[in-house]
Amino acid sequence: MYDLLLTPTLAALPPPVVIADPADFLKWLPFILVFSLTGQPAASVPAGWTEDGLPVGLQIVGRPYHEVTVCRAATAFE
Q1: Per residue in 4-46, pLDDT tens?
Q2: What is the largest CA-CA distance in the chain?
Q3: Which of 1, 20, 32, 56 has the fewest CB atoms within 10 Å around its CB?
Q4: Which of these, 24, 68, 13, lies nearest to 43 by C-alpha position?
């Protein structure tokens, strides 16, 4: 078993500022929603930029009740 899981923060490039249908917003968030529902500690940190200059995030997820491990990893990555 691993101490941390790394995923993209969003499942696609950053969305436009205005999203017409709120249901469309949910398809951007599958990685975030899973860990919010399971109660696992997670942090999102900046991980770079797209070719268009938009930010990309890295999500760091830990085991339940291991918030300190997630915070240490997020600090080290930044």
Answers
A1: 999 999 887 766 666 666 677 777 788 888 888 888 999 999 9
A2: 41
A3: 1
A4: 68
